Amino acid sequence: MKKPITIAIDAMGGDNSPQKVIEGISIHAKYSKNVNYKIFGDRSLIDPLIEKFSINKNKIEIFHTNKFVEGKDSALAAAKKGKDTSLWLSIECLKNNEADAIISAGNTGALFVIAKLNLKMIENIDKPALSGLWPNNNGMNLVLDLGANIECNEKNLVDFSLMGSALYRALFNNDTPKVALLNVGSEEIKGNNVVKNTYQKLNEIKNPLYEFHGYVEGNEIMEGRVNVIVTDGFTGNIALKTAEGTAKFIVSELKLALTNSILGKISSLLNSNNLKKFKNKLDPRLYNGAILLGLDKPVIKSHGSTDALGFSHSIQVCEKTIRGDLINKIKENIM
Amino acid sequence: MKKPITIAIDAMGGDNSPQKVIEGISIHAKYSKNVNYKIFGDRSLIDPLIEKFSINKNKIEIFHTNKFVEGKDSALAAAKKGKDTSLWLSIECLKNNEADAIISAGNTGALFVIAKLNLKMIENIDKPALSGLWPNNNGMNLVLDLGANIECNEKNLVDFSLMGSALYRALFNNDTPKVALLNVGSEEIKGNNVVKNTYQKLNEIKNPLYEFHGYVEGNEIMEGRVNVIVTDGFTGNIALKTAEGTAKFIVSELKLALTNSILGKISSLLNSNNLKKFKNKLDPRLYNGAILLGLDKPVIKSHGSTDALGFSHSIQVCEKTIRGDLINKIKENIM
Lengths: 335, 335
Prior knowledge:
Two copies of one chain form a homodimer. By secondary structure, the first copy, chain A, is of the alpha/beta class. Helix content of chain A is about 45%, strand content about 15%. In chain A, helix 1 (about 20-30) crosses helix 2 and helix 6 crosses helix 12 (about 325-335). At the A-B interface, helix 8, helix 9 and helix 10 of A face helix 8, helix 9 and helix 10 of B.
């Protein structure tokens, strides 16, 4: 039997909240076992949604507040709003060991700053990194940092490699993930000094908990030959968004191609099941849930614009990081 | 009537050369007017191909050499091979004003180094940048630098902006291209110091020959709201290759979806015309031909693995840079 776990949930962040958050919880609660949800937000909005989506009340606890961090708040302004916002309270709940992970679909900068104010960094880690799931030919890999740190030194990139491989172990039950550095070529001499020095350091570390596979280029991210791809937050953010933009462009061109004639429409209809499978495989909701690594408790960020299904997937990421014992795996890796 | 121009062509670089180069010339020669091709390479291989592809001999001149730069040569090793390689000779021909542009599908590093050894930099430009065509919702834009300079300062990025907008004017006959910097957010305070300082400088420059549109994120590259997107060579290379990898992944998933059932196969057959149009629009051969900007003559790099059609497109880029008066447009922009 699975041991009971508790997830703290900021119900008020992101588009169309708390509706998508509560519906997301209802989806997750249907297939999960022994998961309790501590929900932070406006009870007058949340209560009717709990009824609407028929959530088992034994599984939830609501903590009322009518103060929220807004999407447009700067991180500083959000922190200054104080300790009564749904975001702050949900993180504080984690800090006080009353939950095992926290998730929010709200303001990313505010989540980072308030999490850093409340939680401790894991010993020997200087900077937290944002790590995301990325589809590839064989399933999924992890890419980090996706934007938490614009400038990184080699110590940071080594830390990201160790934390990323720990996360991969926690999520996918794989004991020796393959780790690579994102670079502009595969030869040892390519790249900037930070990347080259990181390569040297990762080559020297003898850690049985991951395998270092050198450099990968941008076109190899989705090939699936490695499990964890490490880069600085500037490059990672641009790679992620370029991939999103490319996917959007291609899918819209495809839609145009398949519907710009009667014959096209008919044959697409015939093929609708296959096209649906194709669309599902690329559905960004399946990859929702980025993990902020480096703090001594699991902090998960859902995409602000996702829907209930996407939010339920990011709750699933929370559950996996807890059951996969993420924080201890990171500590094992950096020992 | 178009004035006669001459393109110097290294026939020996890249996969399957000189076959693809000569066939590429034959494709280009069919629709071009008043273009002469000076072809550098092994006459014993080239002559039969000229026959095979029925190229009008009045349009070509062959310069024999049996020394070539190999794909595996380092830039230094390539330069040391001396002045008799097909690459060196074709660049020297440009240097001596016996051609108006040079193109090679060979070793990129060698092309850069030998071009820099032979040609002058345009006054006030410190570093050359590699600029490529990128498809978007409204046609094509330019992205630079795609990998010539791993580290760039703000002066370099400003130069790239000015040169990129000149190239856009030369290629697309557009007098005020919209220029943007690639960044991790659209607010002025986002990004690293180099990007932020470049933003300030571009905002201050009052140049009627382009419009500065601030920052774009990776997902906006293909939206088509701007014409020239500027970044350092590390980020640009990773963005380009990530986009290539994403496109390849999606198209292979699509193929799988459309052929994994009898019904899928039949309906794809019905839809083959539309799917062909879709495929054509994404065909990387259409975007072949990267331009090395900053030297005082046009230097064009074809993808090494492209075929004859792709090579003919990059010859077309040569022709456009010459007829569009690229070098003078750059000089106008940086005045």
